[in-house]
Amino acid sequence: MAAQGKQAGIPNLAPWSSSSRSSVGSKGYRPGFGAVAPVQRQPNRIAPQIAWPANFTQQNTGLPLCVICGQRPADQIRKSLFCTLGCVKAAETLAPAIINIPPNHPKYQDGAMRYVFIKEIMLTVIVENQFRSKWLHTNAPFRPVKRIYLIAQTAQSKATYNTYRLQVENMGCFRAQNRTAGNENRRFHGTRRDCLLGDPGVP
Predict the structure, then answer these.
(1) How many helices (H) and strands (E) does the chain have?
(2) How many CB atoms lie within 10 A of CB 55?
(3) Is residue 63 assigned to a domain?
(4) Which of 26, 59, 94, 150 has the CB geometry, 3.0–4.6 Å to 99, for a possible disulfide?
(5) Is 40 in a helix, a strand, or coil?
(6) Spatial CB neighbours of 6, under 8 Å, sequence gap ≥ 6
(7) Rounded to whole angstroms, how far apart are CA atoms 75 and 66?
(8) Distance separating alpha carbons of residues 187 and 189, to the nearest angstrom
(9) What's the pLDDT at 22?
């Protein structure tokens, strides 16, 4: 996910985004290098937006709706933003693209998210608290999250990352240490943009 938050005095910054990184250290990888989540550089389009309901929950169930079709409840068992594998595949066909998570979506209200794919299943993890706790700038106040985008990636891109993460895991055996597979960790970063994403008037 990408969480937009501009920093005063530093123009042309890209939206803050979360990525995953892991380290094997003594096993052969340099510290800070490892399973890095794939990043689509300069997504070429914004996915077509559906007509979001005023209250982004299904009236008869109270469950959040799928961010692709906006018609069926998102899969709560898998903590997904999508309702079915069909909508997961639909997002993949849009790639590379970004999908705007509307402010009235319950997940937006919970804060920014990251996602990983395991066997084609979308999982979401709330990261706003980590984003806030890791704001280490002493000369600037914490910047609130203004927008959240889901980065649509191709199945091949996700598969490449998952394969690499498995290789890191096989070298470090992190799950046996009660850690994430491949020692995957969330990181936030801001960088210079090659596009106008985040500018006034730009979706």
Answers:
(1) 4, 7
(2) 11
(3) yes
(4) 150
(5) coil
(6) 13, 143, 146, 198
(7) 8
(8) 7
(9) 47
**Residue 19, Cβ density class (10 Å: 0-12 exposed, 13-18 middle, ≥19 buried):** middle
Residue 29 has pLDDT above 60, yes or no: no
Looking at the predicted structure, is the pLDDT value of residue 118 above 60? no
> Is residue 195 domain-resident?
no
Query: Which residues form the domain of 149?
Result: 2-189
Backbone dihedral angles phi then psi of residue 128, each to the nearest 5 degrees:
-60, -40
Pairing status of strand 97-101 against strand 185-189:
unpaired
Question: What letter does residue 8 receive in the DSSP assignment?
Answer: T
In a domain, 203, yes or no: no
Q: Is residue 201 part of a domain?
A: no
Dump the DSSP string for 128-166: HHHHHHT---SSSPPPPP-EEEEEE--HHHHHHHHHHHH
Residues 110-149 as b or e (16 or more Cβ within 10 Å = b): ebbbbbbbeeeebebeebbebbeeeeeeeeeeebebebbb
Answer whether residue 45 shows pLDDT above 60.
no
172-194 pLDDT, tens digit per residue, is 999 999 999 999 887 777 777 77
State the pTM of this model: 0.52
Q: Which residue has the tokens 């899969």?
A: 75
